[in-house]
Amino acid sequence: MSFSIRQAIKTDMSRVLELIVELAVFEKEPDAVKVTVKDLEKGGFEVPKQFVCFVAECDGIIEGIALVYNRFSTWKGSVLHLEDLVISQKQRGSGMGTALLNEVVKYGYSLGVRRVSWEVLDWNTPAIKFYEKKGADVKRDWYVVHMNEKAIENYLENI
Amino acid sequence: MSFSIRQAIKTDMSRVLELIVELAVFEKEPDAVKVTVKDLEKGGFEVPKQFVCFVAECDGIIEGIALVYNRFSTWKGSVLHLEDLVISQKQRGSGMGTALLNEVVKYGYSLGVRRVSWEVLDWNTPAIKFYEKKGADVKRDWYVVHMNEKAIENYLENI
């Protein structure tokens, strides 16, 4: 099955959200997605743009996405962060993930960043193996820390 | 010892870099800092601004910094990321870390973000305990992945 890669346009965002939710279900957090199509349309297409999204299309249907944005590392300066790389269930193993990752790394290189970063779940062994095969460094000694809405409110009440 | 918190100005960046390097030494990566004062001046004070920096000052000397920027979570939308929170060796235990974290959480709340995030080393138990006491969720099941400059070049050569 052949597919093509392009940058997303605003009207792609409802399908992009479907794939984001598909990944959240796979990651065992089906209720975690609070983002709306409107948030995605604003974030990706209104100034200041908060991300760039690449899509992989097969027979006119988007079956994969890679969503990236810049971060500022105090060690490396400007870096590119891959927030989500999602391939629909039926397209896994088709080479779409590799094609999207290629696009992301090429894009990072074109921006002159000193690093492309992302996060992966510790039990997602196929993804970890894939990333390590591609030369990425899976840093098992760093934890991700989240303070969510409720915790932010509690925190501020207790200052 | 009393201190005050304010947003950094451009001329603070050389002292900010000193504290960034101090943290890298503490984190056992003394050679990892490739960023320059010029990178920090550009990133923090030229459009598009890539971060906001808060500083804690004691007797006219900056002894602590918190550097933040926005990210776009595909689950939560716009979130605030705390890239670095550094307190100079001699000011640890003075309450400066708490004061800077307070400022960061207040800033995130003022922006209306649904999350404040950061990263922590797994062996930095005092920091982990501090963050958990403050209501943050230390996610031990997520790994951070880095593809650095050399790996990016190797990757692109092998596409």
Task: Describe what this molecule looks like in 3D.
- 2 copies of one chain form a homodimer.
- With 159 residues, chain A is an alpha+beta fold.
- In chain A, strands 1-2-3-4-5 form a 5-stranded mixed sheet, sandwiched between helices.
- Chain A has helices spanning 13-26, 37-45, 96-111, 125-133, 149-157, and strands at residues 4-7, 52-58, 61-73, 77-87, 115-121, 137-139, 142-148.
- The relative contact order of chain A is 0.13.
- Chain A contains 5 helices and 7 strands; from the N terminus they run βααβββαβαββα.
- Chain A has one domain (4-157): 3-Layer(aba) Sandwich (Aminopeptidase), CATH 3.40.630.30.
- Chains A and B meet through helix 1, strand 3, strand 4, helix 3 and strand 5 of A and helix 1, strand 3, strand 4, helix 3 and strand 5 of B.
- Strand 6 (137-139) of chain A pairs antiparallel with strand 7 (142-148) of chain B, so a sheet runs across the interface.
